[in-house]
Give the backbone structure.
Amino acid sequence: MALKQSIRVEVRERTDASEVRRQAMQTARALGFGEEREGRVALLATELAGNLFKHAGGGEVLLRIVEEEASPGIELLGLDRGPGMKDVGGCLRDGFSTAGTPGTGLGAMRRLSDQFDLHTHPGKGTAVLLRVFRKRPPRAGSFQAGAVCLPVAEEPVGGDAWAVAVSGSRGRLIVVDGLGHGPLAAEAADAVLRAFWRGPFLDLEELFAFLHEASRHGRGAACSVGEMDLGAERIRFAGVGNVAGMVVHLDGEKRWMPRAGTLGAEKVRPGVQEVPWTPGTMLLLHSDGLTSRWSLDQYPGLTRRHPALQAGVLYRDWARGTDDVTVAALKADQEEDGP
C-alpha cells in the first residue's frame, strides 16, 4: 500500500466546504479519476464538511491518498468534538435529519463511498471515514491499515512517515520520526523508509542494523516496527527512539517502549518483544506528537472500527499540537459490525 501524509482542512464556517471540495477534486484529477468518480469525490467532500458544520459546529477533514491492489484512491476523514449520535441507524437512513435539512448526508455518503465507516460517542464527537478509488473497490485483503500523519502547523512538510508492508499472512507497520521538523527531518524519515522497502521482512534485528546504516548521512531518526503474523499467531515489536507501540486485545492493552537511541547516531539493538496474536487484536504505533495519557477503553466500540478511525480519534483528542504527529494502526481484515 502506498501511504501519504495527510492534508488537513479546518471547518469553522459553512463556506469552508469549498476548500475541502477543492482539495479533494485536485487530488482526484492528479490520480486520473474519471468524470463520474471525480463527481462522487466532490459530492462526498461537500457533504462531509457540511455535516461537520451543521451538526457539530465545525471540525476538520483530513485527506490523503491510499492505494490498494494498485488502485489509487482518496480517503476523507471527518473529525469533530460535537454531541455525537444517539441513533446511528437512523442517521444513516436517507431523509433522516436532526438539523432541519433534507437529511441526505450520511446515507448518501455511505452509498457513494467505496469504503465507509464511522465511530460516534455521545458527548465526545464523531469520526467518519470515506474512501473512493479510481477504479472498482479493492477486494478484502489480509489486513486493514490506517493512519494520520501531519506536520506541525508552521511547517510545509513533516518529519514523520509511515508505511505498511504485507506478505501473505504477515503485515509490518513502520513509523519513523526524523529528528527536528521541516524538510531536513522529512529527508531523514524518507531515508529510513527507502531502506525499509529494500527489505521489509528482514529479521527485525537485521532490519534495524540496515536502517541505522541508511540514516548515518542525515539528521537521524527514531523508528519502531510492529509485525502481525497471523500464521504464527504472534505480534512482534522493535524500536529505537521515541515511537511508542501498543497492542490492544480482548484482555486489555499492552504498551511497548522502544530502546533509547537514534538511528544514524549510534547503533542500538532494538530489543524484540513478542505477544500472542488473537482475533480482534490491533497493533498501534505513534510518534511523540501524541501524548501517552490515553486508553482505547475510553472509546467503547472503537477497536471494532477501521484502523483509520482509531488513528483519527486518537489524533483528534490527544495530539500535542506542538510537534509533527503520526498515529498508525494495523489489524487483520475481519468482518466488522455495521456502523
Remarks:
- Residues 45 and 63 are 10 Å apart (CA to CA).
